[in-house]
Automatic annotation (TrEMBL):
Any one GO molecular-function label of the UniProt entry: glycosyltransferase activity
Name of the protein in question: Glycosyl transferase family 1 domain-containing protein
Pfam families: Glycos_transf_1
Domain Glycosyl transferase family: 187-324
GO terms under biological process: carbohydrate derivative metabolic process
């Protein structure tokens, strides 16, 4: 459903606001969140950028949504359109996925203290926002929502949290495919956009000298890094061992052809791909950084290599291949745990507890 006068004449308990034009984890999370809240009979409107990935996906999924047309992250057009939606829809809560448009949101909500602003964070941040200007804009935030304990610690360091504001953690939900019998197979897969820091280069180096085949699945948006990967494949003579798949709309459908999820990423806020792999019973290998140790604390069986130690990753691969059947059984125990912790029902219930 697109922009219409009928839509904003309705009353909405929640606006899920994501103004990104990209197609990635945060954008999919916004769609899942809006769908989950609406499915729990919470009146919800998804607000997104015009002609974006989110708007197209929302239309296909039958989610009630409204588009906003703007060119810059701080703009009168964005402020006016968002304010109009909030006032006309008698909105009680806004859940904002992102940070870039916080200035426009601040001005859009001036004089509307009855609206609770929840900012949801999904990415590790490095640059401090605790200068005077950012303290002013973030003073409007009522609740800082993080998708992992790692991110909670990161946000407390980076973002100015007003004295009257709260901060908490709610794990994002994942759409798992229906479980089907998987025949154990000594192959590995990596899922993530092709970009520096996502771990594809580390994965290539780690399998060098082993007989483990590897599929790299992800959007090829970084030509220079892609060229580096191809050069490394040629240098190490891995042409018959590594397959570059590119973007795939449903990476989980490729999990039937692999039993090892090789994910030596240099850092993640949570990682949908890892959650999907755990929920499908793949043997998972990561580095010891950012959010990954948190999965072990949650009770998952996985292998965590020393951070950026490719040789240690290779040692873990060889250990897994030598104890393959046992590792398969241990990985299968992750399935029910992942599907419980990262369920839509769990996320929606936790969200409903912080709404006005």
């Amino acid at each position: 459903m697109t922009d219409s006068s009928n839509m904003i004449s309705n009353r909405y308990d929640v606006v899920v606001l994501c103004l990104s034009h990209f197609a990635g984890g945060m954008e999919l999370d916004a769609i899942k969140m809006a769908r989950g809240l609406a499915g729990a009979n919470i009146s919800t409107l998804l607000v997104c950028k015009r002609d974006s990935f989110i708007s197209r996906q929302a239309q296909q999924a039958g989610i009630q949504y409204q588009e906003i047309d703007f060119k810059t992250k701080l703009s009168l057009s964005l402020i006016w359109q968002l304010r109009r939606i909030v006032k006309s829809g008698h909105v009680k809560n806004i859940i904002f996925l992102g940070t870039s448009e916080i200035k426009s949101i601040y001005f859009a909500l001036l004089g509307l203290p009855q609206v609770q602003l929840i900012v949801r964070y999904g990415t590790t941040m490095s640059s401090s926002k605790k200068d005077l200007l950012h303290r002013w804009f973030y003073s409007r935030v009522n609740y800082h929502l993080c998708i992992s304990e790692h991110l909670r610690k990161n946000i407390e360091l980076i973002i100015p949290i007003a004295r009257q504001a709260s901060i908490g953690v709610i794990y994002t939900s994942t759409d798992f495919l229906p479980e089907s019998p998987v025949i154990p197979i000594k192959k590995a897969i990596h899922v993530g956009r092709i970009a520096n820091g996502k771990g594809q280069l580390d994965a290539l180096i780690a399998i060098s000298g082993t007989e483990l085949p590897l599929k790299l699945v992800g959007a090829e948006n970084d030509p220079s890094y892609l060229a580096q990967l191809k050069a490394e494949i040629q240098k190490r003579k891995l042409e018959t061992q590594v397959e570059l798949i590119g973007h795939h709309p449903h990476p989980q459908k490729l999990f039937h052809d692999a039993s090892i999820f090789l994910f030596p990423s240099h850092g993640e806020g949570l990682s949908n791909a890892l959650i999907e792999a755990l929920g499908n019973g793949l043997i998972c290998i990561t580095y010891d950084n950012t959010v990954f140790p948190e999965f072990e604390k949650l009770g998952f069986h996985m292998h965590i290599a020393r951070d950026k130690d490719v040789d240690h990753v290779r040692e873990l691969i060889n250990m897994i291949l030598n104890n393959f059947n046992q590792e398969i059984e241990l990985a299968r125990s992750n399935i029910s745990l992942a599907q419980a912790i990262f369920s839509q029902k769990n996320e929606t219930q936790r969200l409903s507890e912080i709404l006005r």
